[in-house]
């Protein structure tokens, strides 16, 4: 029995699909099936019940899945400590980065420290929409992402970097339109639509539910600089993180409505199965230092 067989079994069990597991493991579907067969023959147990479109755990598979996950964790810890003892961490990580101010994300200090402490580790960064990160992580297009989160995702670990508050903002020229009834005025004004499957969308929906309204929405956006520009140009009401909203109000480009807000968190998210990967461990360690400092 090979440790790869356990990793394949756990991946298939989590994803419920041989096809998706093959994509995540970067091997062929026949190779996945072959490894599962070898594992079942070695254990003399049937772990998975397969159909043409999906797989399901047998009772034996359900009983052994947790043990398999613990075995993989232990093996990962062993490799991590062995490589750390040699002072060597190498490999490549593809990291998604949310479309936010890089200075706020501390991307510069992060990469400076990574290159200094782990010269053998290559990190490729790709700026993307938050809604894309979910699929990209599951399909292994990226290995992790610096993202804004509202809720946990199955099979995804999260390192929280900071808490965030987002506020409704309006064009400065529209402030007088809120009198005498702000809620009635807000319901008549145009709003910027937040991208679906994003933290912005979830927060906006929470605010709208609190206000009890379904406003007229205009253009869709999830890039904070674009949202700011659209609000300043009187395209519609938008949602910005509170520190940026405050700075923009002081500059006279927008007006804040701080009473209407929602919370989120800036996090680094990555597949649970990568928890004990040495390269991922090095990046997590560096992120923790940068945000602790």
From TrEMBL:
Claim: Transcription regulation is one of the keywords in the record: yes
PROSITE patterns named among the record's database cross-references: HTH_LYSR (PS50931)
UniProt key word Transcription regulation: yes
- Residue span, HTH lysR-type domain: 1-58
User: What Pfam families does its record include?
Assistant: HTH_1 (PF00126), LysR_substrate (PF03466)
> Which keywords does the record carry?
DNA-binding, Transcription, Transcription regulation
Question: Which SUPFAM superfamilies does the entry link to?
Answer: Periplasmic binding protein-like II (SSF53850), Winged helix' DNA-binding domain (SSF46785)
Tell me which CDD domains the record gives: PBP2_LTTR_substrate (cd05466)
The protein's superkingdom reads: Bacteria
UniProt lists the family membership as follows:
Belongs to the LysR transcriptional regulatory family.
What is the protein name given in its UniProt record? LysR family transcriptional regulator
Q: What is the lineage of its organism?
A: Bacteria, Pseudomonadati, Pseudomonadota, Betaproteobacteria, Rhodocyclales
């Amino acid at each position: 029995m090979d440790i790869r067989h356990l990793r394949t079994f756990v991946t298939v069990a989590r994803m419920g699909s041989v096809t998706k597991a093959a994509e995540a493991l970067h091997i062929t579907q026949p190779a996945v099936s072959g490894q599962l067969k070898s594992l079942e023959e070695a254990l003399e147990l049937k772990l998975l019940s397969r159909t043409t479109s999906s797989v399901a755990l047998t009772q034996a598979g359900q009983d052994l899945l947790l043990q398999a996950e613990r075995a993989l964790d232990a093996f990962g810890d062993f490799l991590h400590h062995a490589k750390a003892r040699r002072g060597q961490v190498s490999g490549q990580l593809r990291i998604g980065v949310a479309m936010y101010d890089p200075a706020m994300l501390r991307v510069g200090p992060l990469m400076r420290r990574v290159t200094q402490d782990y010269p053998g580790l290559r990190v490729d960064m790709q700026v993307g929409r938050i809604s894309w990160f979910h699929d990209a992580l599951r399909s292994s297009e990226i290995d992790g992402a610096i993202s804004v989160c509202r809720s946990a995702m199955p099979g995804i670990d999260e390192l929280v970097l900071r808490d965030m508050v987002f506020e409704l903002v309006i064009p400065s020229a529209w402030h007088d339109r809120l009198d005498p009834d702000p809620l009635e005025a807000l319901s008549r004004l145009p709003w910027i639509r937040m991208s679906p499957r994003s933290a912005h969308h979830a927060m906006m929906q929470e605010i709208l539910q609190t206000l009890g309204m379904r406003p007229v929405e205009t253009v869709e956006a999830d890039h904070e600089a674009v949202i700011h520009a659209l609000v300043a140009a009187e395209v519609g009401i938008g949602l910005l993180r509170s520190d940026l909203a405050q700075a923009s109000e002081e500059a006279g480009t927008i007006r804040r409505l701080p009473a209407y807000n929602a919370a989120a968190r800036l996090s680094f998210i990555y597949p649970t199965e990568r928890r004990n990967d040495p390269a991922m461990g090095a990046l997590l360690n560096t992120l923790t230092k940068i945000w602790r400092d």
